[in-house]
Design a protein that fits this description.
Layout (H helix, E strand, L loop, with lengths): L10 H8 L3 H8 L2 H10 L5 E5 L2 E4 L4 E4 L2 H4 L8 H12 L12 H12 L6 E5 L2 H16 L3 E5 L8 H4 L5 H4 L8 E4 L4 H8 L4 E6 L2 E2 L4 E2 L4 H11 L3 E6 L22 E4 L11 E5 L1 H7 L17 H16 L2 H17 L8 E7 L2 E6 L5 H13 L3 H14 L1 E2 L1 E2 L6 E4 L7 H18 L4 H16 L1
Parallel strand pairs: 3-15, 5-6, 5-7, 7-10, 10-11
Antiparallel strand pairs: 1-2, 2-3, 4-12, 8-9, 11-12, 13-14, 14-17, 16-17
Length: 463
């Protein structure tokens, strides 16, 4: 692509003229496996626009988005208040990112975040969840003078080298070692945590209140008991709220369900309404004082784009919308309604084994049927690849009912629902009705599996 000197940049014209090349451009210049995967599972849809909890294709068909960009679009797509805030901050022509001033929007955003977790004192702003976790790891190691971090099996904390070191999924770690000193423990296992702490070299425990992979919820009382153990051994409780935070679980932070006060909290995803990447690492005063102990160490941990005006403005607007529309309460009540209606189906469909989660972070798990007519197709899918049954449900919800969901991790028979916090009875009805129809078909025999199988074969032939 060449541009003539003096030619005006026209983004809309560029998208009109070359938007249809999206998959070819991806294959040629970005990640070719992404296109291959999307073609294989039949998700190679072209969306023309999005609004709220819905995506729209070029024919104007709507798709209910129960994925919300892995939780990024907590306010739905293109919230007008956040959108206006970004326009306003651009129009203000601020002297942004001078690197040698104190930007007021960063201070205001930090103040607003800390007001929702009053036991924490300071905030470091970065650009993503994995960066927020990286900062948490560095702060914990420096503040305690120890190098080892405890994490849980099946945890997901990001994919940069530090956060990868505390990632409980082998498929992500493979081929990227050696990583930082670490020790995994079973999720929610206090005895295992106690054993590790007795070695005397642990900086902290990093834990998700609800694991994104599999939507596993910590046992009641674990966080409080773990925090007491950690205090006794002079180690820190670090809570990863990258996905569970900002109202997702029906409290502003998920740790608030357990009435604990973590030493460090990392959050991101929903912080800016889906417009500008932003992450936040919050911690107690004494930890920040250890890290930033003198003027010589003022930039000892920093990010060039951290605290940029667009991200801070979007973040402030996001918090405003969450408060104005009482979205935390909506996540709690709508999530309870959706979970209850789905849980009622477990007695009706034997391959539906569990519905769990909190607020609008819900896991739907499937398991091996006992009826002989269902066992053969189930085992056929399992022998091909564990997790394929859940993918057939995802496929059917998408192609038959125009509902976007996805499995909660590789080799798992679990679908994760993380819709916008703005959804209500209309979306609950639509999802439950569609899911019921799909489960009815799944329990009649092999039709659902054949549909998915044909999609895979069609994609393979096309390649």
């Amino acid at each position: 692509m060449t541009v003539e000197v003096g030619q005006r940049f026209d983004l809309r014209s560029l998208l009109r003229s070359r938007g249809s090349e999206r998959y070819e451009l991806q294959d040629r210049h970005v990640n070719p496996q992404l296109s291959r995967m999307l073609h294989a599972i039949g998700f190679d849809k072209v969306y023309a626009r999005a609004q709220g909890a819905y995506l729209y294709d070029e024919a104007g068909n709507d798709y209910l988005d129960m994925l919300s960009g892995f939780g990024v679009f907590a306010l739905g797509r293109h919230d007008p208040t956040v959108r206006q805030a970004i326009h306003d901050v651009l129009d203000a022509n601020l002297a942004d990112l001078t690197q040698f001033d104190a930007p007021p929007l960063a201070g205001l955003f930090a103040e607003a975040l800390l007001a929702r977790a009053p036991h924490l004192d300071r905030v470091y702003f970065s650009n993503s969840g994995t960066e927020a976790v990286e900062a948490a790891l560095k702060f914990a190691r420096h503040a305690t003078g120890r190098g080892r971090i405890i994490y849980c099996d099946h945890a997901f904390h990001g994919l940069t080298v530090g956060s990868l070191s505390v990632n409980g999924a082998k498929e992500f770690r493979s081929g990227f070692g050696p990583l930082l000193p670490d020790s995994p423990i079973p999720f929610g296992d206090l005895a295992a945590l106690d054993r590790e702490l007795r070695r005397g070299d642990v900086a902290g425990l990093l834990v998700e209140p609800i694991q994104g992979k599999g939507v596993a919820v910590l046992p009641p009382g674990f966080l409080a008991a773990a925090h007491e153990l950690l205090r006794r051994h002079k180690a820190l409780l670090i809570v990863d709220e990258v996905q569970t935070g900002i109202g997702r679980t029906g409290d502003f932070y998920a740790f608030q369900h357990d009435d604990v006060e973590p030493d460090i909290v990392a959050t991101a995803k929903a912080l800016s309404g889906g417009y500008i990447p932003v992450g936040a690492t919050m911690a107690k005063e004494w930890i920040f004082k250890k890290v930033y102990s003198s003027m010589d160490r003022v930039l000892v941990h920093d990010s060039t784009f951290g605290s940029n005006a667009q991200a801070m403005a979007a973040g402030l607007a996001t918090l405003h919308v969450i408060d104005r529309d009482d979205l935390v309460a909506n996540a709690r009540s709508t999530g309870e309604q959706l979970s209850k209606r789905l849980a009622e189906l477990t007695d009706r469909y034997e391959m539906l084994t569990d519905v769990r989660g909190r607020g609008l972070m819900i896991g739907i798990e499937f398991g091996r049927p006992s009826a002989w007519k269902l066992r053969a197709p189930w085992m056929a899918l399992q022998s091909a690849r564990k997790g394929l049954f859940a993918q057939t449900i995802v496929h059917a919800l998408f192609h038959r009912h125009r509902i976007l969901t996805q499995v909660s991790g590789d080799h798992l028979e679990v679908i994760k629902l993380i819709p916008p916090l703005t959804i209500g009875e209309r979306e609950v009805d639509a999802f439950v009705d569609a899911f019921t129809a799909v489960m009815e078909d799944a329990h009649r025999g092999t039709g659902l599996m054949w549909d998915f199988g044909r999609s895979l074969v069609k994609a393979a032939v096309a390649r």
